[in-house]
Amino acid sequence: MPKPDFEVIVIGSGLGGLASALTAVEHGCTDVLVVEAEGVLGGSTRLCGGVVMGSRSRLQRAAEVEDAEDDMFNEYMAINGWDVSAGPVERWAARSGETIDWLQDRGVPFYERLIFSGDDRRPRGHCVEGGGQAIIDALVSRCRKAGIEFVLGNRVDELIHTDGRVTGVRAGGEDLTAAAVIVATGGFGANPEYLAEHYPIAWVPGETFYIGADGARGDHLKFAAHVGAQVTGENRGLRMLNPGVDTLHEAFLPGWTVLLDTRGHRFCDETAPYGILDSLLRTRDNVGYVVFDDAALRPPAELAERYADAYKQVWPNHAKFKPKHYTADVMKQYEHHERVHKAGSLEELAKSTGIPAADFCGTIARYNQLVEAGRDTDFGKASRFLNLISTAPFYAVEVRPTAIAHTGYGMRIDDCGQVIGVDGNLIEGLYAAGECTGGIVGPTYSGSGSSLASAAGVGRMAGEAAAQYVSGARV
User: Fold this and answer.
1) How far apart are CA 4 and CA 470, in angstroms?
2) Of 34, 90, 134, 119, nearest in space to 457 by CA
3) What is the pLDDT averaged over residues 132-141?
């Protein structure tokens, strides 16, 4: 058999791709190529906030946060009703702290202070100084020092697949052979056709938008069909609430809002993590109404500081969170938009939204009683966020979870990152990491840093397995 052009070819240069490429070199490979479809390295990772979820890292231990070895895995599985691929999830979760240490040792600048990633019981969110771009800068520098080659602006058309084995890639009519190929092409959020087909609960024509790289077009699904790989995870990912007036991404609701369903009922702590809100809206027709009053937009002087403290999320790598849509200027700008309702009374506001006035007004009355009591005994929102909704005019903004931050439909992998075929056998020479994998994201996105954690963790697993496979091929 002739010697291949490269030992390992990695398709995609986000965190999953860079982690797998660098790990392959660290485990003995000498000829590794990273092929990137866009003209810039980093994929969607370079655009993200830069939080990586991890358990039992050096930083977590230094903060005196105690996590048992299987705590993160058990919590991840519980929040997803065990409806994920337990094997790869268990392995990357168990090694997640080790992966944080690995990133830190390779130049990724983490803050010492950790945050709560989502609804986890202990802080596991490791914040990167400089966000996602800092992750890319550190790993690209390390990859170049390790001799890894990069090719930009080259979209891979297909995998070379012969006799049940992947032996390279084809791009622009040129074939490049490899002993192993790692697919890390990201998701398909930039492909409207795939969104409509594989993430229909998030797809509203003319409204849905993607928070990610333009290169995330679902190439992995084309590869999977060509080589006979299993795919899984339809209608999985992460959606964030969108008022439909623009494509400005807003991750969290201000604490002084009330979120109602189409029946006029409150159903959550409005400061809940975005993954929880996504999951809750899924069972409520994917429509909600963000309700607040004029005091929230123009607080009286004596309450200005209280209204300014509107978010429980305080991240060391992020400026203080402030409302993007729920401001006096934006409400004025879009006061005639069909999704923005404004009225002089709650009864009129209910009529404008089409919600039965008795339910709507009853819910707000109940909420105001909880505010007066100083304790949200219905859903547990912290008392510092409880403010009366009593100052006219009143507002209700219709929101839908149509801002897509992550897609979870992709190739099924084993606990080493190797791709599984539709026949149940592992596809020789083919591995995957990052958003192009399926079965990792469940019904509920677990929290900030989950996608980067799995990208880095599974990337390392795939790089190790590919290097081991290449080593055997050398013999």
Assistant:
1) 11
2) 90
3) 98
Contact between residue 214 and residue 254 where contact means Cβ atoms under 8 Å apart:
no
pLDDT band at 74; cut points 50, 70, 90: very high
Phi, psi of 362 (to 5 degrees): -65, -40
Cβ density class 195-230: b for 16+ within 10 Å, e for less: beebbebbbbeeebbbbbbebbbbbbbbbbeebebb
Question: HSE of 258 in the Cβ direction (CA atoms, 13 Å)?
Answer: 30
Residue 159 CA to residue 428 CA, distance in Å, equals 12
Sign of CA dihedral 230, 236, 238, 239: positive
Question: Angle at CA 317, nearest 5°, toward 314 and 319?
Answer: 60
- Give the whole-angstrom CA distance, residue 413 versus residue 431: 8
Question: What is 120-132 written as a DSSP string?
Answer: -SS--EEEETTHH
Is the CB of residue 205 less than 8 Å from the CB of residue 41? no
Smallest CA-to-CA distance from 186 within 9, 431, 13 is with: 13
Helix pair angle (131-145, 96-105), 10° resolution: 70
The model's pLDDT over 413-430, given as tens digits with 9 standing for 90+, comes to 999 999 999 999 999 999
Phi-psi region of 285 (alpha: psi -120 to 50; beta: other; left: phi over 0): left
Own/partner pairs, 109-114, CB within 8 angstroms, 24+ separation:
109/134, 109/138, 110/52, 110/59, 111/316, 111/317, 112/59, 112/62, 112/63, 113/63, 113/316, 114/59, 114/60, 114/63, 114/65
Handedness of CA 60, 212, 16, 73 (dihedral sign): positive
Average pLDDT over residues 359-382: 98
The answer to whether residues 212 and 187 touch, using CB atoms and an 8 Å cutoff, is yes
Output the pLDDT for position 1: 58
Confidence (pLDDT) at 473: 65
- Cβ-based neighbours of 318, under 8 Å, separated by 6 or more: 49, 127
Give, as one character, the DSSP assignment of residue 331. Answer: H
Look over the chain and give the mean of its residue pLDDT values, rounded to a whole number.
96
Decide if pLDDT at 397 tops 80.
yes
Q: For residue range 30-40, list pLDDT tens digits in order.
A: 999 999 999 99
